[in-house]
From TrEMBL:
Any one GO molecular-function label of the UniProt entry: transcription cis-regulatory region binding
InterPro entries noted in UniProt: Homeodomain-like_sf, HTH-type_TetR-like_transc_reg, HTH_TetR, Tet_transcr_reg_TetR-rel_C_sf
UniProt protein name: DNA-binding transcriptional regulator, AcrR family
Keywords assigned by UniProt, alphabetized: DNA-binding, Transcription, Transcription regulation
Signal peptide range: none
Phylogenetic lineage: Bacteria, Bacillati, Actinomycetota, Actinomycetes, Mycobacteriales
Domain (HTH tetR-type): residue spans on this chain: 11-71
DNA-binding region: 34-53
PANTHER family for this protein: HTH-TYPE TRANSCRIPTIONAL REGULATOR BETI, HTH-TYPE TRANSCRIPTIONAL REGULATOR RUTR
Length: 194
């Protein structure tokens, strides 16, 4: 007699599949891959993929959501133990840059060309800008930063984050994403320090 799956097994398996899917997409992109190729690469069946999403387009969007959820958890865990507003913003932006550093140019091009995935990226960039605004506001309240307009500073950061995401910074400066985020952190925190 077959044993029923252990509680949490299905969730763990889904997470493993999404992790593998994200890793595949980050390296190779996704536009050129068929569902058959994805299933072969993940060593699963197409029917297994259909338990994750109803179509390739939905699968790409769900994988993009998974990537950003995983990245957000990682970024937040990195700044949690850090004290000091300047250090927290620097750690936050550096962690965002590191999370995006795993993305190949092909993945970024595919993401930009596919509106449902691009929308997920843009929403997460706006979330990150909001988080930077929170960190700036905390720093102003603590006296670490001069009294700046936190929403403006966050909007400035968001504008650069979008340019980094769209590879504009790389094209014009040669900086990879991780270094671009480090420079953004240095300029932003230096400009608002008390």
């Amino acid at each position: 007699m077959e044993q029923p799956p252990r509680p949490g097994f299905a969730t763990r398996r889904r997470t493993q599949l999404f992790d593998a899917l994200v890793d595949l997409f980050l390296v190779e992109g996704f536009a050129h891959l068929t569902l058959d190729e994805i299933a072969n690469r993940l060593r699963c069946s197409k029917s297994t993929l259909y338990t994750l999403a109803g179509s390739k387009e939905q699968l790409v969007r769900a994988a993009t959501v998974h990537f950003f959820r995983r990245a957000t958890e990682d970024v937040e865990s990195r700044i949690e133990p850090i004290g000091g507003a300047r250090e927290r913003i620097t750690a936050y932006l550096s962690a965002v840059g590191n999370a995006l550093a795993a993305a190949s140019d092909q993945f970024m091009a595919d993401l930009d060309a596919f509106p449902p995935a691009r929308e997920v990226y843009e929403r997460n960039t706006q979330f990150a800008a909001g988080r930077v605004q929170e960190l700036i506001t905390e720093g102003v309240a603590a006296g670490d930063f001069r009294d700046v307009h936190a929403a403006f500073a966050a909007d400035l950061a968001a504008t650069m984050m979008v340019r980094i995401q769209q590879r504009g910074v790389r094209d014009s400066t040669g900086l990879d994403d991780a270094h671009a985020y480090a420079e953004l952190a240095a300029i932003l925190t230096g400009g608002i320090s008390a």
